């Protein structure tokens, strides 16, 4: 019998709506090697590597009557040319044109009759660069059988893939409807709890999220459970979400965050001010300027509540992705006019949650929100529209990446920007990835609710400059 989707993975399919596609994306920008790089080379790289991860050639098939979760079956008509597409930007090939392209293609739902991923090779960027844009459904990413497709494309070594020369792929015949039903019955006998989970789905999903949070935290009461009783403050970041998006990328220097930390992290708890705290303080300052420019009321107690999965940046330049992950719900003090004071307030709040047992661990996140360590940017989709609207104003996923170059073949990756999905009722999601000395923001916003997403991006850059210079607003 084919692999059955877990209740968690299946929930990503069931929660998907026309305005809120449940896939995570990335935008990677490359410098081509001297001999060039083209669409055919990208196809060759992917073909040589996905053999080790069968999920990328499998599709979802429903069980008749939906008496059990769907199963993964081999796609007998797998078509690489469908999944890896080629496009180009018109002259002059600016970053703004790339952003518009990403905003158009990322909201489109993936075809469920095929494997749940897509890759776009985008040529024509200024300076001879090219981009690779990826889309991978949350249901496909479980951290064990499959990762985000972006992990398949890049490698820490330049040149040929270690996986080249694999045996040709031979798909297995898909099960018949009778076999699917029989398999569901067998699974129901072997794992009766799966049937209970299936029945508890749908309308009771929000309740089960709360129960699982308490179960996972044990004697502790998680931050999420605590906050559920205290609705997030009203904010323009919470709005009715449509199907159109604006996507903006922001490029900053990791050394700037380190310098801010060295200068402002003073006192008894200096060692507890992290790079992640500086990132959040930068965003808080950006929100402050953005709200003031909008004419929104901002007073001393104004906050923006953020759900933040924390994976602290290390100073080891050879470090790869951190495996210690916690999630906090933190109130960003946008009403505080002093940049350094915002940083210290955020650092104190984060330290209090981490030390007080209020943060949610990676195991809890797996039950709560579909967390998978290789794709931290997938956090939060499970919470759904009603729950997420109550808990927080914005999701901020901050993923430390490798501080050494990565390559697609012989092409060096210059920068990488995440594209995190929106939940119902949330007009903005911020994804951040550090890579090779840079910190790269991807701002994914509802097109109607946030026509000024570019202004927020500029405010984030200005906020970092304010922290770096030491001047106070």
From TrEMBL:
Its EC number is 2.3.1.20. Keywords: Acyltransferase, Glycerol metabolism, Lipid biosynthesis, Lipid metabolism, Transferase. Residues 5-279 form the O-acyltransferase WSD1-like N-terminal domain. It catalyses: an acyl-CoA + a 1,2-diacyl-sn-glycerol = a triacyl-sn-glycerol + CoA. Pathway: Lipid metabolism; Glycerolipid metabolism; triacylglycerol biosynthesis. Residues 323-467 form the O-acyltransferase WSD1 C-terminal domain. GO terms for molecular function: diacylglycerol O-acyltransferase activity. GO terms for cellular component: plasma membrane. GO terms for biological process: biological process involved in interaction with host; glycerol metabolic process; response to hypoxia; response to nitric oxide; triglyceride biosynthetic process. Pfam families: WS_DGAT_C, WS_DGAT_cat. NCBIfam families: acyl_WS_DGAT (TIGR02946). Belongs to the long-chain O-acyltransferase family. This is Diacylglycerol O-acyltransferase.
